[in-house]
Design a protein that fits this description.
This is HTH cro/C1-type domain-containing protein. GO terms for molecular function: DNA binding. It comes from Vreelandella aquamarina. With 70 residues, the protein is mainly alpha-helical. The protein has five helices and two strands, in the order E-H-H-H-H-H-E. The chain has a single domain, classed as 434 Repressor (Amino-terminal Domain) (Orthogonal Bundle), CATH 1.10.260. The longest helix has 11 residues.
């Protein structure tokens, strides 16, 4: 399973979904799905925009965690 840390990062910086969407140009629905970890896919351009906005690496946003089925 891929764990998304955007909610933690946003919480630490006291950011709202609408703020991130406005500043990155990423659709608010996409940010919401990432925030709630319900996204099934994401465009690389969106990942790049998030990394640029948060000044972080991809590994800071996403983490692989083996599931119970592995």
């Amino acid at each position: 399973m891929i764990k998304c840390h955007i909610s933690r990062i946003m919480g630490e910086r006291k950011l709202k979904i609408v703020d991130v969407a406005r500043e990155t140009g990423i659709n608010r629905g996409t940010i919401t799905r990432l925030y709630h970890e319900s996204a099934s896919r994401i465009e690389l351009e969106a990942v790049e925009a998030l990394c640029r906005y948060f000044d972080c690496q991809v590994g800071d946003l996403f983490e692989y965690q083996p599931s119970d089925n592995d």
